[in-house]
């Protein structure tokens, strides 16, 4: 039998393989759709340095003949807005986006929100509605569908609205088949953890039953916005080099290196070119393919490049992390630690860890682990995540901590490129450098928790001791009164008060 070969487009590919983007089942689809839209809203607020205000609604619109529910999902934000000419492609084209830069962002592939729209379209055949404004006198409303085979937007209608109030933001409305009841625990957990790791955001959610969930901000401080950065020589490959060479205006290698690479100045560039045996005045466009391959290898093995600078990143910071945890979990004790910036394969990253005890933290079989990357919570595939492995590798008895205590561990990694293992962005690969930072961070907070626990234990012992005193001292006083044949027993209260004071000082 003759084989037939054919090619499929990218939207078609994701249509056929929606599992890899997290749209596996009706319940997972609800979760992923909300997650992707909320992420986009947070990114968009960050772009303009605003305190995010994200409102999510879900309405039940009916049921399919096979009993699956159909919902309308609406997400409104106060972010940057999308320029009207880009609205069709941003929402009606897979792998189209504004985040393909070297910058810390939640979205990475130009896929998430669009995938939710695509999923909604293939399950309900309804268009997506987008209303957006950058805050000017006009807002723009579109009804779109995706031409799956050709990966192109189909604009069904376009309206220009008056925006007298100067509203800025984006509203997305889509329909999808889903199972909210099953998705509910994950959706609520996602929103709670998102609020925890974005303590400057207001998030509200109205579920299909009309229940309102409010996550209010705990701070007015907007975290330092992430900045775009250039590629570091250690992270460069042949493809990237060739693209840079094609695009550059530089006419010699010295300028080329200085202009396009992170932390490469004149001295460093000269030193590198000398060691690689390349003429500083050579036109980069004259390099042959073999020379480009050679250049990328030399870059990776040159030992003197400065490590990537993490000032382009936007970690949460110890104070905000603490505020977020306090707000959502109200624990008795919180330890936080921000590690120094580090890098893997030329990508800068910062790890932040925290450990909290008591309050609303449940007793779990093996701690409760909260994982975050670029300020988004990761809720699935925990056992495959690097943090999970690190936690399991620690000998907790050394810290006098047992895994069934009401303890939560938090790991946040932010990077211009988070080493996710899947497109669904659910878990982080165990890169050696990342693993090391997580381990050191957790050790640091574990020591603080150990100190807290031992203090608490001591206080507990003292309290018991005082209770015993309080119980028996009055009796002893009574006996001694009788023995000494006195009128009144000695004043025990004063003695007890003194003992308490001594205890307080000892702590
Ligand atoms: N709420 C929003 N506000 C502003 N821009 C948005 C919003 N949602 C999506 N966009 C734009 O649409 C693009 C595509 O979104 P998406 O498919 O989720 O991919 P990604 O977030 O990975 O880039 C984004 O890169 C962004 O430019
Ligand atoms: Mg996105």
If classified by CATH, what would the architecture of the largest domain be? 2-Layer Sandwich
How much β-strand is present in the residues?
A: 15-25%
Radius of gyration: 29 Å
CATH fold name of the largest domain: Heat Shock Protein 90
Low-pLDDT sequence parts: none
Say which CATH homologous superfamily of the largest domain is assigned.
Histidine kinase-like ATPase, C-terminal domain
Q: What is the succession of H and E elements?
A: HHEEHHEEEEHEEHHHHHEEEEEHEHH
What molecules are bound to this protein?
Answer: adenosine-5'-diphosphate, magnesium ion
- The general outline is globular
Distance between the termini: 84 Å
What is the number of beta strands? 14
| Coarse structural class | alpha+beta
Domain module tally: 4
Helix proportion of residues, in percent? 25-40%
Helical region count?
13
- Spatial ordering of strands, largest sheet: 5-4-3-6-2-1-7-8
């Amino acid at each position: 039998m003759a084989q037939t070969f054919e090619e499929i487009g990218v939207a078609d590919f994701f249509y056929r393989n929606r599992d890899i983007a997290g749209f596996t089942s009706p319940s997972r689809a609800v979760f992923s759709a909300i997650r992707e839209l909320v992420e986009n809203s947070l990114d968009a607020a960050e772009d303009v340095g605003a305190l995010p205000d994200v409102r999510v609604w879900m309405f039940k619109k009916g049921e399919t003949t096979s009993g699956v529910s159909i919902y309308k999902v609406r997400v409104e934000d106060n972010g940057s807005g999308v320029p009207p000419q880009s609205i069709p492609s941003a929402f009606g084209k897979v792998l189209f986006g504004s985040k393909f830069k070297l910058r810390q962002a939640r979205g990475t592939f130009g896929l998430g929100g669009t995938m939710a729209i695509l999923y909604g379209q293939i399950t309900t055949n309804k268009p997506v509605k987008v209303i957006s404004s950058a805050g000017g006198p006009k807002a723009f409303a579109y009804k779109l569908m995706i031409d799956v085979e050709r990966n192109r937007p189909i604009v069904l209608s376009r309206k220009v609205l008056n925006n007298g109030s100067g509203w800025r933001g984006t509203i997305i409305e889509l329909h999808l088949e889903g199972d909210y009841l099953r998705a509910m625990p994950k959706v609520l957990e996602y929103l709670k953890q998102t609020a925890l790791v974005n303590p400057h955001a207001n998030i509200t959610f109205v579920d299909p039953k009309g229940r309102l969930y409010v996550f209010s901000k705990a701070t007015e401080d907007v975290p330092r916005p992430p900045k775009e950065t250039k590629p570091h020589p250690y992270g460069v490959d042949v493809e990237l080099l060739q693209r840079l060479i094609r695009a550059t205006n530089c006419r010699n290698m010295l300028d080329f290196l200085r202009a396009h690479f992170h932390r490469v100045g004149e001295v460093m560039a000269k030193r590198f070119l000398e060691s690689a045996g390349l003429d500083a005045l050579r036109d980069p466009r004259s390099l042959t393919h073999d020379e480009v391959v050679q250049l990328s290898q030399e870059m990776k093995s040159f030992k003197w490049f400065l490590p990537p600078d993490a000032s382009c990143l936007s970690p949460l910071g110890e104070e905000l992390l603490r505020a977020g945890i306090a707000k959502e979990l109200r624990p008795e004790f919180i330890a936080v630690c921000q590690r120094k910036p580090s890098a893997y394969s030329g990508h800068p990253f910062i790890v932040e860890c925290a450990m909290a005890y008591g309050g609303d933290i449940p007793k779990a079989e093996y701690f409760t682990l909260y994982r975050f990357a670029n300020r988004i919570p990761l809720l699935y595939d925990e056992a495959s995540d690097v943090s999970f492995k690190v936690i399991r590798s620690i000998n907790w008895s050394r810290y006098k901590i047992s895994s069934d205590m009401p303890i939560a561990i938090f790991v946040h990694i932010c990077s211009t490129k988070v080493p996710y293992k899947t497109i669904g962005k659910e878990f982080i690969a165990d890169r050696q450098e990342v693993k090391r930072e997580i381990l050191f961070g957790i050790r640091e907070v574990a020591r603080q928790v150990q100190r807290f626990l031992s203090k608490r234990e001591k206080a507990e012992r003292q309290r018991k001791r005082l209770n015993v005193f309080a119980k028996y001292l009055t009796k002893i006083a009574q006996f001694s009164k009788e023995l000494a044949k006195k009128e009144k027993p000695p004043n025990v209260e004063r003695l007890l008060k003194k003992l308490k004071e001594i205890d307080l000082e000892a702590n």
